[in-house]
Amino acid sequence: MQLNNTVTEFILLGLTQDPLWKKTIFILFLVFYLGTLCGNLLIITTIKTSQALASPMYFFLFYLSLSDTCFSTSIAPRMIVDTLVKQATITFTECLIQVFTFHFFGCLEIFILILMAVDRYVAICKPLHYMTFMNSRVCGVLVAVAWVGSCVHSLVQILLALSLPFCGPNVIDHYFCDLEPLLELACADTYVINLLLVSNSGAICTVSFVLLMVSYVVILHSLRNHSAEGRRKALSTCISHITVVILFFVPCIFIYTRPATTFPVDKMIAVFYTIGTPFLNPLIYTLRNAEVKNAMSRLWSKKLTSDD
After folding, report:
1. pLDDT at 57
2. What is the reported pLDDT for 260?
3. Which of 212, 218, 6 is nearest to 109 (CA)?
4. pLDDT one-digit tens code per residue, 96-115
């Protein structure tokens, strides 16, 4: 429940107030967002229509692309539109909705990355038990648990935000609503809330990153017992996953595992994981994955044939 809240809307300062830079940002981020949509929707369509991509790895990749699309959409469209106005404002309710969707799909992406690491571990280290451990029912349950866990995480963020009293000022030095910049505007001591934030978002990011890196170290170590061709294929897949993990988690850990103090570089780091990573993920997975590229080629060829 909202407490002693006299603020009905917030002013978002964005990345810059310079008119020329705002036009540049509009064009640049519109291109990035459209590229994110096209790349991820192409992967989603390819996986759904290709029988060759029916394995659990691509089942999880489907949900990673879906979460990437929604994660970027929770931030990018509004940010792009805000560059066209002189003063960008967001109501308190819209701010809470953005906090919820941003954390929901961000947390979902973390859980999906963990599931992809589990899938690769079983496939490479326990190949004889792969179809038993990673059957369609198990994969469906794991994804459902990821959705529920993401919802719980986001609800915690909302409850923390609702516990903060806002009585002015209402200027957020950021381009989207998040709990960290909101803490600086609260008319109360936010020490406990910040501890809860770090123990929630910060712990999820840090623990997940450590678990993922340890799991991939174990996977890469086990490849020494595989054939040269098996090592090459598994290594290519794992390197793609590790690249995505580093690009996503390192900026998140920097933002969410420290006291509620903002730095000028925070906004640029946030751009990297809210806009850049969802844009790069489809490129990383398609350029390094022959099966996905072949399936996309077949899909494109089939579409051209049907058009003729």
Report:
1. 87
2. 61
3. 212
4. 999 999 999 999 999 999 99
Residue 2 clears pLDDT 50, i.e. is over it? no
**Residue 191: its pLDDT value, please?**
83
Confidence check: pLDDT of 164 > 90: no
Residue ranges of domains in the chain: 9-303
Q: Which CATH superfamily is domain 9-303 in?
A: Rhodopsin 7-helix transmembrane proteins (1.20.1070.10)
Instruction: Kindly give, in sequence order, each residue whose CB lies less than 8 Å from that of residue 229, ignoring residues fewer than 6 positions away.
Output: none
SS (H, E, C) the chain: CCCCCCCCEEEECCCCCCHHHHHHHHHHHHHHHHHHHHHHHHHHHHHHHCHHHCCHHHHHHHHHHHHHHHHHHCCHHHHHHHCCCCCEEEEHHHHHHHHHHHHHHHHHHHHHHHHHHHHHHHHHHCHHHHHHHCCHHHHHHHHHHHHHHHHHHHHHHHHHHHCCCCCCCCEECCCCCCHHHHHHHCCCCCHHHHHHHHHHHHHHHHHHHHHHHHHHHHHHHHHHHCCHHHHHHHHHHHHHHHHHHHHHHHHHHHHHCCCCCCCCCHHHHHHHHHHHHHHHHHHHHHHCCHHHHHHHHHHHHHHHHHHC
pLDDT tens-digit series, residues 147-157: 999 999 999 99
Q: Which residues contact 52 (CB under 8 A, 6 or more apart)?
A: 291, 294, 295
Residues whose CB falls within 8 Å of the CB of residue 23, separated by 6 or more in sequence, listed in order? 83
User: What average pLDDT does the structure give for the chain?
Assistant: 86
Question: For the whole model, what pTM was predicted?
Answer: 0.89
The span from the CA of 278 to the CA of 127, in Å, is 31
